[in-house]
């Protein structure tokens, strides 16, 4: 019994820690991996802007197509790293070369949304800022010293880091602080449209990290119905059967 309690409390702690995501994030974001059109757009952005450097080794194109009902003609437009639907989403870039060029090989992104958290990835993609001291010309407030260039700079534009403002309320608590970014070069998109692109990308990455999750939730729902309508009445019937002779 004691062991059971210890195991249970360890499990609870682990869940709490993973829910906290292990660190400060600049923005919060609630992913929706079931939003089919958003995940489809995210997949398109990923193939266009990210797959040159990053792979998604554990996700297959045809799995993506099945789960999100992507028609064949659209699928073939996404598949420019391969021509086989059963293939994993690999990057065109040779890993050793990438490490040489960037000082750090671009990591596989299949599980990143789960390992880092959706908030983290969302914040990362919104937090590139101009920094002369970096070879890429930019730095990142969510991942200081990041060797990834701001590949979405054409869409977002370029921002600089201003003075940090602290909003202390009367009680001395720190209110949520907006990161002190200031846009100095306009991009093709408005700030709101850019947030939409980042949201699509993170929804796609959240789906990739747990492609079975949407289905698992449905299964949980059926399991609950089963307990309510079958298991409980059955248990009750058995109990009555047992106690019938006792009274
Ligand atoms: C030109 C190559 C290149 C492109 C294109 C690129 N990245 Fe990266 N990315 C990198 C490199 C290099 C790193 C490692 C950065 C570091 O750790 O300093 C990285 C790191 C990341 C990380 C952090 C992963 C982690 O857990 O540390 C995320 C998330 C990410 N990239 C997302 C994206 C997304 C989304 C796109 C497309 C919009 C993209 N990247 C396009 C090179 C690239």
From TrEMBL:
Gene3D superfamilies for this protein: Cytochrome c-like domain (1.10.760.10)
One MF term in the entry's GO annotations: heme binding
Domain of life: Bacteria
GO CC annotation, single: membrane
SUPFAM superfamilies: Cytochrome c
Signal sequence extent: 1-19
Binding-site positions, heme c: 50, 53-54
Domain Cytochrome c: 37-205
Keyword field: Heme, Iron, Membrane, Metal-binding, Signal, Transmembrane, Transmembrane helix
Keyword Iron listed: yes
Compartments, as annotated in UniProt: Membrane
InterPro entries, A to Z: Cyt_c-like_dom, Cyt_c-like_dom_sf, Cyt_c1
Transmembrane segments: 220-238
Named cofactor requirement(s): heme c
Record note on cofactor: Binds 1 heme c group covalently per subunit.
The protein's name in its UniProt record: Cytochrome c1
Organism: Oceanococcus atlanticus
């Amino acid at each position: 019994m004691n062991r059971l309690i210890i195991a249970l409390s360890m499990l609870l702690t682990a869940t709490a820690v993973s829910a906290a995501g292990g660190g400060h994030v600049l923005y919060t974001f609630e992913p929706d991996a079931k939003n089919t059109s958003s995940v489809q757009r995210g997949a398109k952005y990923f193939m266009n802007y990210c797959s040159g450097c990053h792979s998604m080794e554990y996700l297959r194109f045809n799995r993506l197509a099945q789960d999100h009902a992507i028609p064949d003609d659209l699928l073939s437009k996404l598949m420019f790293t391969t021509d086989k639907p059963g293939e994993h989403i690999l990057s065109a870039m040779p890993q050793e070369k990438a490490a040489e060029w960037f000082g750090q090989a671009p990591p596989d992104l299949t599980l990143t949304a789960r390992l880092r958290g959706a908030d983290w990835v969302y914040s990362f993609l919104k937090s590139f800022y101009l920094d002369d001291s970096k070879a890429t010309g930019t730095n990142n407030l969510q991942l200081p010293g990041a060797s990834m260039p701001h590949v979405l700079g054409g869409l977002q534009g370029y921002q600089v880091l201003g003075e940090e403002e602290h909003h202390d309320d009367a009680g001395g608590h720190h209110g949520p602080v907006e990161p002190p970014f200031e846009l100095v070069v306009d991009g093709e998109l408005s700030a709101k449209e850019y947030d939409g692109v980042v949201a699509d990308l993170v929804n796609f990455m959240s789906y990739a990290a747990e492609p079975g999750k949407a289905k698992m939730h449905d299964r949980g729902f059926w399991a609950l119905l089963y307990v309510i309508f079958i298991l409980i009445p059955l248990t009750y019937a058995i109990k009555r059967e047992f106690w019938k002779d006792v009274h």
